[in-house]
Amino acid sequence: MTSKPLTGRVPPEAIRRAELPRLPPDVLARYAALEDLTGTVSDAMDNLGLSGAIPASVLAPTLGARRMVGQAVTVRNVERGVNPSVAAASGKGMMGEHEAYNQALPGDVVVIEGLAGVSNMGGQSAAVAHRAGCAGAVIDGSFRDPDSSRERGFPIWSRGVTPITGKWRLQTIEINGRVRIAGVAVDAGDLVLADEAGVVFVPYAHATAVLAQAEKIDAGDNRQKADIAAGIDLATLAATKYK
């Protein structure tokens, strides 16, 4: 049970973790300082035998120039299983992503396992997430009202936009449990990195080791860029090990 007052959007037992493990602020800052954020970290994950990168061709960003570094608060949505017109007539929505915003700390990233073709986050929902200080969202599914998130500078990586509400079609069954995003398992508290190239999830337990690898790769890339700019001949460039 969480110590925070609940919104009532989901039953208390649906909140799997009350407290999330937290990375030191300097670790987050060092990740944010990487020049080629997702590419460098994807390479570092390869070096350590980890997987967690998802290309923008799968989860596309709404704000291409934005970068995002934060820890995951997770939401798991499933199909509601009743006819939407019947659900609408009942007047009872069963989406509970607002509880994730309630549980989040400023800078956290909302990570939603959902459905494509219907909205897992509407405009008002994005406004509440932004007001709560969330850095952005990653949605394995669709969202709607893109103008609402764009005008707030609230970035979303998703499978696309839809006009169809999820209110009568989806049910939130877990907050801060394990979700699967484009085949990648993500736990609440895992590190989320995103930019124009895509999204990378770094397991919390490996965040320090991945960062060390990523900083080595980043330093090598910077040395190589400097040599290219200095006009070093191609044979020397090809023979030099930068990373």
UniProtKB/TrEMBL annotation:
Q: Gene3D superfamilies under this entry?
A: Ribonuclease E inhibitor RraA/RraA-like
Q: Tell me one GO molecular function of this protein.
A: metal ion binding
Record has Nucleus as a keyword: no
Q: Which cofactor does it need?
A: a divalent metal cation; Mg(2+)
Question: What keywords does the record list, in alphabetical order?
Answer: Magnesium, Metal-binding
Cross-referenced InterPro entries: RraA/RraA-like, RraA/RraA-like_sf
Any one Pfam family here would be RraA-like
Binding positions for Mg(2+)? D145
User: Which residues hold substrate?
Assistant: R144
PANTHER family on file: 4-HYDROXY-4-METHYL-2-OXOGLUTARATE ALDOLASE 3-RELATED (PTHR33254)
What protein is this chain from?
Putative 4-hydroxy-4-methyl-2-oxoglutarate aldolase
Organism equals Bordetella genomosp. 10
